[in-house]
Amino acid sequence: MEGNSAHASSYSTIQPTAAAEDASLTQLSPPTSPWAARKVLVFCLLSFVYFLTWCYVGLLAPFFPEEANKFGINESETGLIFGVYSLVAFLASFIYGSFLLPKIGPYFVLFFGLFLNGGAVLIFGYLNLLPKGQMFAVFCLVTRGISALGGSACETAVMVILIQEFRDNLTTVIGMLELFTGLGFTLGPFAGGALYSLGGFRLPLLVTGGLLLSALPMVWLFLPRTDFIESENKKGKRVWKEALGIPGVIVLCVAMFVGIISISFLDPTLQPHAEKFGLNSTGVGLVFLVYSVTYMASTPIVGRILEKQNWKRFFLVIGFFVSSVCTLFFGPAPFLPSFIPRRKVWVLMLSVGIAGAANALYYVPIMPELLACCYERGMKKDVYTDSMASGLFTAFSNLGGFVGAFVGGILVDHLRFEWTSTIIAGLVFLMSIALAIFFSCFRRKKSVQRRSSDPERKRLIDDKNKNGHDVNKSQHIVSI
Fold first, then answer.
1. What's the CA gap between 66 and 318, in Å, rounded?
2. Residue among 164, 201, 147 at smallest CA distance from 39
3. In 15-133, which residue ranges form alpha helices assigned H by DSSP?
4. Residue pair 355/265 in contact by the 8 Å Cβ criterion
5. Is the pLDDT of residue 109 over 60?
6. Domain assignment of residue 23, yes or no
7. pLDDT (tens digit, 9 = 90+) per residue, 133-190?
8. What's the pLDDT tens digit per position in 381-402?
9. Does 211 share its domain with 343?
């Protein structure tokens, strides 16, 4: 009896039960829907953070130039206060992407960024208590720079978390995320002007800073925390060196830079140009609103299409080409035929609206295409690669924002808006041609994935279990 029981016991340890076998096969089955309840919560929370971050970027536009003038700050210094955000964010993105994100993980970088950005915005609201003159300008510059450190931390961390949570649905997710970017661009200036009318200089900054800080407990409670263990101290540097040696990564970074220039040059230049059309500040705001609405409406659609069809490279080329044509009509360009209407509001509105949709065509696929270039060269799908890609994405976006506004203002002073928009259109058109040539010369390698049939997978599991191997090991072998 004892021998039989011992035999039965040993047999039970070797032979898998029906439940264990079913569990093994279940684990080998395709994953469930990416839009589980937890991931929906993660996406909503990160979208809220992204929206608030971009809201603050445009919050000051309706009222700060007037306030700065009261404190004796000239237009050049005011422009520097606006531009320092993008410049600091550009530099900080490399630090976050190469060092902090792989070291401590995106969760803590996001928490740090929210605290820094929210605190700096609140402090900015009390700077009107300072005396007039250069002290006010210096404190505005420093506070705005600190806010940029926090904002860029939020941007890079959000992108890394989304890559890791939605790696197989990245184009759809980025398309939806960019909807909140456009919403922030749209509502930021509107909310800033409305709150300024209600409560003066301090109210819009206190509200925005308070909302940023209110996201801290939500991040702490609801965002999943992942432990990142750095096994190699110098791996992060190697990843950046390897990525920057990939031609596709360099080309896409330049494309991001040029693409942001194509719209950021309008920030300091559109308002004086629109006065020739008889538009007041409300009319100028409406022009930007048209761009934001078409961009917001297009990004989810583009993301969904790219989820179904592998047209990322095609959309990149077409997006830059259409954007270049639309930019020619902003002025319009002096060399266009005489039958093209001049200084007509509807021409400006139509061209800006189409440009918003065109920009969605190239902005949404840049990040997935950048990651695809890295994976093709054998880079791993880990936090180092994700952090590097997010750092590059954020850095060159902000660099384009700074250069576009700065150079756009200089060109308009010397060449007028019509020729400035023509030069920008030419730059965007050259980017379209460069992308078309590059994608033609460097075609994507087709990967072949081999999958075993279900009976074969079941047979291998049974064989491994009978030999005394662990079920998890057999699953790993079968999946390979």
1. 40
2. 164
3. 18-28, 37-59, 64-70, 75-95, 101-104, 106-124
4. no
5. yes
6. no
7. 889 989 999 999 999 999 999 999 898 888 888 888 888 888 888 888 888 877 888 7
8. 877 888 888 888 888 988 988 8
9. no
Residue 469's SS3 state is coil
List the one residue out of 204, 99, 214, 73 whose CA is nearest residue 156.
Answer: 99
Q: What is the pLDDT of residue 172?
A: 84
Pair 431, 262: CB distance under 8 Å: no
Residues 259 and 217 in one domain: no
Domain extent at residue 103? 36-226
Of the CA atoms within 13 Å of residue 147, those in its CB half-sphere come to 33
CATH number for the domain harbouring residue 388 = 1.20.1250.20
Place of tokens 């790696």: 167
Q: What is the identity of the amino acid at 336?
A: L
Which CA distances in Å does 362 have to 257, 272, 321, 340, 357?
12, 28, 10, 27, 9
Rounded-to-integer distance, Cα 147 and Cα 235, Å: 29
For residue 24, being part of any structural domain is answered with: no
Q: How confident is the model at residue 22 (pLDDT cuts 50, 70, 90)?
A: very low
User: Are 82 and 137 in the same domain?
Assistant: yes
